[in-house]
Specification:
Elements lengths: L1 E7 L2 E6 L9 E11 L1 H8 L8 E2 L3 E8 L12 E4 L2 E2 L5 H4 L10 E2 L11 E5 L3 E3 L6 H4 L2 H11 L9 E5 L3 H12 L4 E5 L3 H9 L4 E3 L4 H8 L7 E4 L4 H10 L5 E4 L12 H6 L3 E3 L6 H12 L9 E6 L3 H6 L9 E5 L1
Helix pairs in contact: 4-5, 4-10
This protein binds zinc ion (2 copies).
One zinc ion binds next to helix 2.
Amino acid sequence: MRAAVLEAPHHLAVRDVAVPQGGGELAVVRVEQAGVCGTDRKVVDGSMPTTFPRVIGHELVGRVVDGGGGAGAPAIGTRVLVDPSMSCGWCDTCRRGLVHLCPSGGLMGRDVDGGLAELVAVPASRLHVVPETVSDDDAALLQVLGTCVHAQRQVDVFPSDHAVVVGLGVSGLLHLQLLRARGATTVVGVGRSASKRALADELGATVTCTPDEAAGVVAEVTGGNGPEVVVEAAGTGATVSLAVELAGYGATVVIFGTVVGANHSLPFYDLYRKELRLVNPRAAVGRDYDDAIAVVASGEVRGAPLVTERLPIADAPAVLAGWYDQPGRLKVVFEP
Ligand SMILES: [Zn+2]
Ligand SMILES: [Zn+2]
């Protein structure tokens, strides 16, 4: 079968690999679509370590072709989302129920072979049924949305709350919709790209602005009190600092973006003065994916407007190599 295989940093090739086998707990899924994100880019460019050769891809929706054993496993032909995280089940962290943080665990497409391929084998317990009423474009965002759901579980949102989202990429636009769906009275979207701000407006932002305008706009929208919730969804030291600066007294700041590298500074006095609560969620657990599927199936959150390209798998090497040449790019989906 054809698969996108990373042979070495920057050397992604689409070539034939062995067909994955099911059996025991392993189901086999025919991949209908595989999204790519910043994690794939970092795996491909070597800034996230992996071993070679490695089939990349962890945002997978497809159909079961071999059901795997076990009661409750989806029947052959069922449309499913794959939970791409792995855990050992034996360590103290797993036994505390924190399977998404397992030190021996990992991510498909980085730590084990992923699914930018025609077929993928995965434990049946990590499959989540996607209703046929959900469009392909909406389904393409479900894995990312699952991680957003996991993050927002760590913060209360009341109907009187004001919220701010810093960073209007794929995850920021999903967080914004989730905050509206949860009842936040206003959601301010902060981003540099005019086209992404326009999309945020379309998806329910109360108002959008650039980072430079944010302090003034947030003060105006919140009557000078600042928001109760800030979600940082860009993953740089500067955007985390901005999120802290914009937060109101006693607010919760959700650092959703992945900040890599050291030597970042933060406005530490603001953290103290405003008695902020920082949460820094990492990966989703099973129920998060079911809830992501539910809010998309109900129409409360839309993924389709975020899909900017739908391409054959043969284009994966060129797309991942030239990512930053396309500033308007949001979710790119490959069809193996
Ligand atoms: Zn991803
Ligand atoms: Zn473990």
